[in-house]
Write a structure and sequence with these properties.
With 328 residues, the chain is of the alpha/beta class. Helices cover 31% and strands 24% of the residues.
């Protein structure tokens, strides 16, 4: 089933304003999400890129190939659905221009209450005059055929660098667009302070982000022998690895790009998590309900414990039913 995604639908309307491309013309879709209009226009030459594992899996289930983009790739058109976070969105705009060929065009769409007008101004600052349409409380925007002399190359380089991992104010490696990228989330901090020093064995961190909880676990719990981080946002994996490399430890560590709603591949002695209640600005508790399905009995050893930073979320009741114990 296709997700209800007005921005993706409006991107399709923007696409329909442009002349048809030959079937062999290369097209890149950054931040791609499923939408009904893709079935009628997407060709084998299209390249889909998506860092969020549930969206990537949904695209692949529909038959679209989701793969990394090589630096040298150039495309006749580049489509994008930018993230809400301003620095991450600007970095993606710059990346779109890098991958767009001479005389190619860049198209984007976003919800009005998620910065669509600001994104339009940012793209104009990079690429010059634009056209736009509005529908379903969203805005679709596209460039004229790109010319090198109209592109602000200095601004593009500046914004492209915004995506680079860097230390935040708390001293942890992160990057714009990740959850609580520039600070330590209070819920995670509260949970970390409650982790018992006796916690040991194999541990999983669900929705690990840039690795704060796991780094604190390694510092506080010397008995941890195996630690698996599961994170749906591929952009968080490198910062997480950097942060864990800074902590002296002897545990075996793996960082996985994985949607935990599909379950886990092994059993654990303990599972820690700050569940994802929000996607962008939207309050989406169904993500927590879905993530709480991740630790079924086949993933939990007898006597396992689960640790979450709340006493009321559905995961606590579910964990009691699964393992007979919980901590929150």
């Amino acid at each position: 089933m296709l997700i209800d995604d007005p921005a993706a639908a409006v991107l399709g309307l923007a696409w329909a304003q442009l002349p048809p491309l030959p079937a062999h013309a290369p097209v890149l879709f950054l931040g791609a999400r499923p939408s009904a209009w893709l079935a009628s226009v997407a060709a084998p030459a299209w390249h889909f890129a998506q860092d969020f594992k549930p969206h990537a899996d949904a695209l692949q289930a529909l038959g679209y190939s989701v793969t990394p983009v090589a630096e040298a790739e150039r495309h006749a058109r580049v489509l994008l659905l930018p993230p809400r976070q301003r620095q991450a969105a600007r970095a993606l705009l710059a990346r779109a221009l890098e991958h767009c060929a001479e005389d190619g065009q860049v198209l984007l769409a976003a919800a009005n209450d998620e910065g669509a007008r600001s994104l339009q101004g940012d793209l104009a600052a990079l690429a010059g005059p634009l056209q736009a349409l509005t529908k379903q409380h969203c805005r679709g925007v596209w460039t004229a055929p790109l010319r090198a002399e109209r592109i602000n190359h200095a601004l593009r380089a500046e914004w492209r660098a915004l995506d680079a991992p860097r230390d935040n104010a708390a001293g942890f490696c992160s990057r714009p667009g990740l959850f609580a990228w520039d600070r330590i989330d209070p819920g995670s901090q509260l949970l970390a302070a409650q982790l018992p020093a006796t916690l040991s064995g194999a541990v999983a961190d669900l929705g690990a982000g840039w690795g704060y909880l796991s780094s604190q676990l390694l510092q506080r719990c010397a008995g941890v022998t195996d630690l698996d981080l599961y994170e749906a946002d591929a952009r968080a994996l490198q910062p997480a690895r950097i942060n864990l490399a800074r902590v002296p430890h002897t545990a075996r560590i793996e960082v996985h790009w994985h949607d935990v709603t599909h379950g886990l591949p092994r059993r654990y002695d303990a599972i820690i998590s700050n569940p994802p209640f929000h996607v962008d600005r939207a309050d989406r508790p169904e993500w927590d309900r879905r993530s709480s399905r991740a630790p079924p009995r086949r993933c939990c050893r007898t006597g396992s414990r689960g640790w979450w930073p709340t006493g009321t979320c559905p995961t606590r009741r579910r964990w009691r039913r699964i393992s007979g114990t919980s901590r929150s």
